[in-house]
Design brief:
This protein is of the alpha/beta class. The chain is 41% helix and 33% strand. Strands 1, 2, 3, 4 and 5 form a five-stranded mixed β-sheet that branches.
Amino acid sequence: MNSSAAFSADRLIVAPAGYVDMDTAPLLGAALTNALDSHPDVCCDLAAVDFFSAAGVHVLLLAADRAKRSGSRFSVRGAGGITRRVLRITQVEHLFE
């Protein structure tokens, strides 16, 4: 998994690419934690993710909880195909913009 971060207006966008699985999910988790610790509005853009496992879902839920506890905003966008299906099945669609 590769990841990039960019600012869009007042939002920090974290954009993983490739596979998010049990080996790479901790990298995404660290990127999201760092983003949430330094910015009040963070979006995880999953448009370039080819595979998304339950480990990735867990990371998104942890990020959402961290944002809620700190008063930040966290959202997810760009999920398509199997990634969107995984998020729907695991009932985390509420994170979508």
